[in-house]
Specification:
Layout: H1 3-61, H2 91-101, H3 107-121, E1 123-124, H4 136-142, E2 144-145, H5 147-160, E3 164-172, E4 178-188, E5 191-196, E6 201-202, E7 208-212, H6 214-225
Helix pairs in contact: 3-5, 4-5
Length: 229
């Protein structure tokens, strides 16, 4: 083989190698650019997902009142403060109910959860220095209440959680003592269960009592609120 052919072949090989190296370099650069774009897009998507999660958490943290939970036996009334009613709900109360009962499907467990929350957070007011009877909202705000006020709070929370509940006027208590006392009744599978936050007893057995409708207890509430208890 003559020298010219050998030299020409070496030149061709070098040229091929150089072209191959150039092509490989282009491919690597292109892949690098694509990877960079992918990383950039992936980072943007991650940021967007995190932003959506934060906004979703904000929405979840906002108290809302789910009307679908309310029993068919009740109406929802939106009134100004001139209307005196013992069963008043506000955003704080809605949040408490949501946090404590949202994932509970069993009515008895739900009723006990509400009772336990009141036991842990509302104290009996032994030092009441005025006669202005509190509604449920005021009892929540002060974290204090007497028997009827604690009953108002229980009834309001129970109803907002989808339970049926009413006010109970007790004349003879579980110890067979004559009293002028108030508690609540909650209906579990249509069975009335007396709930007494002031006596700290769920399913208490008072001897003599009357279950009042809302018209009756509202009349009493207005009478008590005006200092005529």
């Amino acid at each position: 083989m003559d020298l010219w052919k050998i030299t020409n072949r070496n030149v061709i090989r070098k040229t091929q190698r150089k072209n191959s190296d150039n092509l490989l370099s282009k491919i690597k650069r292109k892949n690098s650019e694509n990877n960079l774009k992918y990383i950039r897009n992936d980072n943007q998507n991650t940021c967007l997902i995190e932003k959506i999660k934060k906004e979703y958490k904000k929405v979840l943290s906002v108290p809302y009142f789910n009307l679908h939970n309310i029993s068919e036996g009740y109406n929802v009334l939106l009134a100004d403060k001139s209307i005196e009613n013992p069963f008043i709900i506000n955003s704080e109360l809605v949040k408490i109910i949501k946090d404590y009962t949202a994932n509970i499907k069993n009515d008895e467990e739900k009723a006990k959860k509400i009772f336990n929350w009141i036991h842990q957070n509302i104290e009996y007011d032994n030092l009441r220095n005025d006669n202005k009877y509190q509604n449920s909202k005021e009892t929540l705000e002060h974290r204090l209440g007497i028997c009827g006020e604690m009953a108002f709070l229980y009834i309001t929370m129970a109803r907002a959680a989808g339970l049926k509940s009413k006010y109970v006027s007790v004349k003879v208590d579980c110890d067979n003592k004559k009293v002028n006392h108030g508690c609540a009744v909650v209906y579990l599978q249509n069975n009335p269960i007396l709930v007494d936050p002031a006596y700290n007893k769920f399913d208490i057995h008072h001897r003599k009592y009357n279950i009042l409708n809302d018209n009756e207890i509202t009349e009493n509430f207005i009478y008590w609120r005006n200092g005529k208890s």
